[in-house]
Design a protein that fits this description.
Helix content is about 30%, strand content about 20%. The chain is of the alpha+beta class and about 260 residues long. It has two domains: about 5-105, Roll (Ubiquitin Conjugating Enzyme); about 130-259, 2-Layer Sandwich (Ribosomal Protein S5, domain 2), CATH 3.30.230. The strands form two sheets. Strands 5, 6, 7, 8, 9, 10 and 11 form a seven-stranded antiparallel beta sheet that branches. A four-stranded antiparallel beta sheet has the order 1-2-3-4. β9 and β10 form a beta hairpin. α6 runs parallel beside α7.
Length: about 260
């Protein structure tokens, strides 16, 4: 199902909205990745839509958690809905614009006093990973920024959830991957009845796993596992870390899907 209102939005920001098949959310659920901002909103369309507005089910952000609770996003949607003609479906681009404005109004600089420069930088390259990892997974080039390193890994041909979990356990057993501060993961698996099982784990990197799942949905990738370890060197990067995660994950996913 295509989310109403996405034609205009996705023409400017491709794949900003993707359908969700997570059994933890209602049917006709969607995930909105607010463009150029550290914010994800999940919402669904009630059976009586458009007579009634969409319902916000969850939000994720790593920057302004107080400003972007589910309730605050719902309040933004309510105000936008009140000034739109539901039949025009212009509410979605307006909702995105309002969320971006609220995000900017709540922007704060990261406190450099929170950096831990005593923490040693962990230098790792793709070539350092074990042969068991590099033969089973498509890998990105390492992306380094201020003592953090990001490497993405994608694996296709994963036939079941137990297979996906086993692949991730084997990946985490690599001596270098085991040293990562976080490893966001996501997968999409087709079950025996033809349905799609979707899963993500942020592993402490707020909204990172959800963004990986967003990429898998946008690519219509099935039976694929995507992971991004981050080796943290003590300097907080702020929202730019999500750009890094996106960049390396797209590279690894593209390689995996070409094979």
């Amino acid at each position: 199902m295509t989310a109403p209102g996405t034609t205009t939005l996705n023409s400017v920001y491709p794949h900003a909205v993707v359908p969700l098949r997570d059994p933890g959310f209602p049917s006709a659920s969607f995930q909105l990745l607010v463009p150029d901002r550290d914010l994800i909103v999940r919402y669904h369309l009630p059976a009586s839509y458009p007579a009634v507005p969409p319902v916000v089910d969850a939000t994720e952000t790593g920057t302004h958690e107080a400003a972007f609770s589910k309730e605050s996003a719902a309040a933004v949607l309510e105000s936008v809905w009140a000034f739109n003609d539901p039949a025009s479906e212009s509410w979605l681009p307006d909702f995105v614009a309002a969320l971006r404005s609220l995000y900017d109004d709540n922007s704060v600089e990261y406190d450099e006093d929170l950096n831990d420069l005593s923490r040693p930088e962990y230098i790792v390259d793709t070539a350092d990973l074990s042969p068991e990892v590099t033969t089973a997974w498509a890998t990105s080039r390492p992306l380094r920024d201020r003592r953090s390193t990001f490497i993405a890994l994608a694996r296709t041909g994963v036939a079941s959830v137990p297979d996906a979990d086993a692949a991730l356990r084997a990946l985490k057993a690599d001596s270098h991957v085991a040293q990562a501060e976080h490893m966001a993961v996501a997968y999409r698996i087709r079950d025996s009845e033809g349905g799609i099982i979707e899963f993500f784990d942020n592993d402490g990197e707020t909204a990172a796993g959800a963004r990986l799942l967003h990429s898998l949905i946008a690519a219509d990738a099935v039976n694929v596992v995507l992971a991004v370890p981050r080796w943290f060197g003590g300097i907080l990067l702020g929202p730019v870390r999500f750009d890094h995660i996106h960049e390396v994950s797209q590279e690894a996913l593209a390689k995996a899907l070409q094979n």
